[in-house]
Structures are given as structure tokens and as C-alpha cells.
Amino acid sequence: MTDSTNKSGAERLVLVIEDDEDTRDTLRYALELNGFGTAGASDGRQAIQWLSRNDPPCLVLLDLMMPVMSGMEFLRTLRGDARLQDTPVVVVTAWPEEARRFDGAQAILAKPFELRDLLTEVRRLCC
Q1: I want to staple 110 with a disulfide (CB 3.0 to 4.6 A). Which of 8, 90, 96, 103 is the partner?
Q2: For residue 53, what are the contacts with CB-CB under 8 A and spacing of at least 6?
Q3: CATH code of the domain made up of 3-126
Q4: Is 23 in a helix, a strand, or coil?
Q5: What is the 3-state secondary structure (H, E, C) of 47-89?
Q6: Per-domain residue ranges for the chain?
Q7: d(C-alpha 76, C-alpha 24), whole Å
Q8: What is the pLDDT along the chain (127 residues), one digit of tens a residue?
Q9: Is the pTM of this model over 0.85?
Q10: Could you tell me which residues are beta bridge partners of residue 89?
Q11: End-to-end CA distance of the chain
Q12: What is the rounded radius of gyration, in angstroms, for the C-alpha atoms of the chain?
């Protein structure tokens, strides 16, 4: 798990939870090029550990299908924590139909998605 912050601080920090390292790194790079700080986690459990040690990010980008703790398990845990329950979540998944069965995400982007669509959602929820 790594962090990259910018001058704007935690208000513009996005937590990217994605088990595929290349995808996670690409998302983080694109966000950083657009002025956001990032942190990354490879599964829901690692993300919960990060959140327990840090202020809530302005947004979580969440994959659904991950080992150890799935995105849905993570989302239920997040929404059950009074400190984190209002943190905006954008689900990025190859299974958008599955994501729509659960409450808790402000947006769902089906993989593959356009970078401009992702940035639109991040800016809408984070700025």
C-alpha cells in the first residue's frame, strides 16, 4: 500500500481499491496527473487497515471482485462505520449488474470505461 499526496491535502485524496496492480497503478497515475493525491489497496481488508490509520479520503474507487475481502464486503463494512459511512464510493467493475444489487455507491462505472467518465465522477464527488 502506498500513498501519494498533493498540496491540496486529504480533501482531494482518492483511495483506489483494485486487486490488479497494473489497473490500480494506471488509475492512480491518471488521478495524480489530474491533481488528486492517491492511496492504493489490493483488497478490501487492506483498505480497511489503511482507513483505520488515516483520515477518510474524499472518495473511494472500488473494484468488486477481489480476493481476501470483496468490494461488496468492503462497502458493507464502510457503511457500518460511523466515521466512514458518508465517504463517497464509485464502483469500477466488469460486473455492473451485480453492483446495482447493493446500495452504498454514488456511481458505478462498467469496465472498460473512458477516463473522462471516471474523472467526471471523481470531480463531482470530490471537489
Answers
A1: 96
A2: none
A3: 3.40.50.2300
A4: helix
A5: HHHHHHHCCCCCEEEECCCCCCCCHHHHHHHHHCCCCCCCCCE
A6: 3-126
A7: 22
A8: 555 543 344 569 999 999 999 999 999 999 999 999 999 999 999 999 999 999 999 999 999 888 888 888 899 899 999 999 999 999 988 876 665 666 678 888 888 889 999 999 999 999 7
A9: yes
A10: 60
A11: 24
A12: 13
Contact in structure between 77 and 44 (CB atoms under 8 Å): yes
What's the grid cell of residue 99? 453492483
Helix (H, G, I), strand (E, B) or coil at 33: helix
Q: How many CB atoms lie within 10 A of CB 116?
A: 8
* CA–CA–CA angle 68, 48, 4 (5° rounding): 110
CA 48 to chain centre: 12
Place of cell 497503478: 25
CA distance 40 to 18: 8
Category of 19 on φ-ψ map: left (φ > 0), alpha (ψ -120 to 50) or beta? alpha
User: Residue 100 carries which DSSP code?
Assistant: T
